[in-house]
Structure formats: structure tokens, C-alpha cells
Design brief:
six-stranded mixed beta sheet; mainly beta; globular; single chain; 10 strands; 47% strand; 0% helix; four-stranded antiparallel beta sheet
Length: 114
């Protein structure tokens, strides 16, 4: 059974940083691309970025240059390093295999506020 568990969210001031983690199980992690998504209150969930099985990354324009995705295959974990956070980055963050029918995890809340 595929499971993901996001963690690392919290309250941070504008300009601050956070690192989110997503631990996955139930599939061959090292062979899978992983994406991060977020959902702000009252808005649809949006794609944040992706890391391929070989480590290549791509990001939404809104986070490019501020967010970095990495992975540790030994730990079945993908990370989202978020720098220069702004209030518009507030939302619940999720990870998931892209283009899969996996269930969403519980997400981790990120709140950027002064």
C-alpha cells in the first residue's frame, strides 16, 4: 500500500526558510519521480515542483529560484527546501508520485506571516 507522510511545516516570518520532508513507502522509491504540491485556503491545489528518479528537477515559476527539491533514496524521502518565503506561500504542502492514482497524504501546513 502506497503511503506518504509529509512533515516539517510550521509558522515562519516572511523571508524565512523551512525544509519539508516526505517519507514514502509501498513502492520502489528510487525508480519514481516525486512531486510537491500545495493548496492555499480557498484555492485549488497547485503543483510546486518535481524531482525525477535521476535527480533532475523542475519548478513552478512562482517558486523557481527560492525552492529546491532533493531526495535521499536510502531513506525513501524527498525534501522541499523553501527559502525567501512569502505570505503567498502559505498553504498545506503535499507530496505524491505524479500521474499516479495514489491517495494524498495528510500534508503539512506552512504559514508565512509576520
Amino acid at each position: 500500500q502506497v503511503q506518504v507522510a509529509e512533515s516539517g511545516g510550521g509558522l515562519v516570518r516572511p523571508g524565512g526558510s523551512l525544509r519539508l520532508s516526505c517519507e514514502a513507502s509501498g513502492f520502489i522509491f528510487s525508480s519514481s519521480a516525486m512531486s510537491w504540491y500545495r493548496q492555499a485556503p480557498g484555492k485549488e491545489r497547485e503543483w510546486v515542483g518535481i524531482i525525477g528518479s535521476a535527480g533532475g528537477t523542475n519548478y513552478a515559476d512562482s517558486v523557481k529560484g527560492r525552492f529546491t527539491i532533493s531526495r535521499d533514496n536510502a531513506k525513501n524521502t524527498v525534501y522541499l527546501q523553501m527559502n525567501s518565503l512569502q505570505p503567498e506561500d502559505t498553504g498545506k504542502y503535499y507530496c505524491k508520485r505524479p500521474t499516479s492514482s495514489d491517495n494524498w497524504g495528510q500534508g503539512t501546513q506552512v504559514t508565512v506571516s509576520s
